[in-house]
Amino acid sequence: MGQNPYNQYKKSAIQTASQGKLILMMYEGAIRFINVAIENMPEKRYDIVNKNIIKAQDIITELMLALNMEQGGEIAKNLYSLYEYMNRRLVESNLKKDPNIASEVIKLLTELKSAWDIAVKKTNEMQQSKFVQPQMQQQSTDYQPPDKNIPGGTLNISG
Question: Which residues constitute the domain of residue 93?
């Protein structure tokens, strides 16, 4: 029997996404899972809270593992420390069932997602500019009107 069309679409989106887009999707997923956990804390649905916090922690762990510490230098080290901090705070939030701690992690993830969103857009713009021919940009300034001394060089519509 065939797969659900939505699941097929999600699988295709993941397989064809750029690295930057995948990172954005991971941030979105972690934020979504933490929000689900927070929504279920007041109702004391701790099984749902626990499951969703663990999913968010798994995503953050994947983000940690994806860092290239050699090429990333200081930025990669700082991100690693930040991800480590977020995971610790999610453990604490899960143990205490504290939505404020989970909200703190959402705020951090949202800020990082915004920065990545800008980086992905700039990268896409730079990649797209590779396809614009420099000649096309100069044509508008290099326009030469047709020579009136050449037969057929101008269109006479006066009749």
Answer: 16-123
